[in-house]
C-alpha cells in the first residue's frame, strides 16, 4: 500500500508556505521523500537515516520557496 500525502507547513520570509510530503520506495537503500508544493511542483531527495521525514520535507519545501516554485 502506497503511503498517502501528509501536510507540511513552513514559514519563509514572513510567509506561510503549505505543501505535502510522502516517502516512496520499499528498501531502506532506495527510500526517498517526495515534497509537493501547492502549485504541484515536486522535489525529491534520498531519505537519510539521520533526518526524520518531516524535517527533510521542511528542508525541501524551503528550497522550493527559495527557488520561487511554491
Write the layout of secondary structure elements.
Elements: E1 6-12, E2 15-24, E3 32-37, E4 42-46, H1 53-66
Antiparallel strand pairs: 1-2, 2-3, 3-4
Please state how the strands of the largest beta sheet are arranged side by side: 1-2-3-4
How do the helices and strands follow one another from N- to C-terminus? EEEEH
Q: Give the DSSP E fraction (strand runs of 2 or more residues).
A: 35-45%
Terminal residue distance: 28 Å
In terms of structural class, how would the helical and strand content be classed? alpha+beta
Biggest sheet descriptor? 4 strands, antiparallel
Helix count, DSSP H or I runs of 4 or more residues: 1
Residue share in helix: 10-25%
Q: In angstroms, what is the radius of gyration?
A: 12 Å
Task: Write up this protein.
This protein has 70 residues and is α+β, with helices and mostly antiparallel strands. The protein has one domain. Helices cover 20% and strands 40% of the residues. The protein is built from one helix and four strands. The model has no long low-confidence stretch (mean pLDDT 92).
Structural descriptors:
20% helix, alpha+beta, 1 helix, four-stranded antiparallel beta sheet, single chain, 70 residues
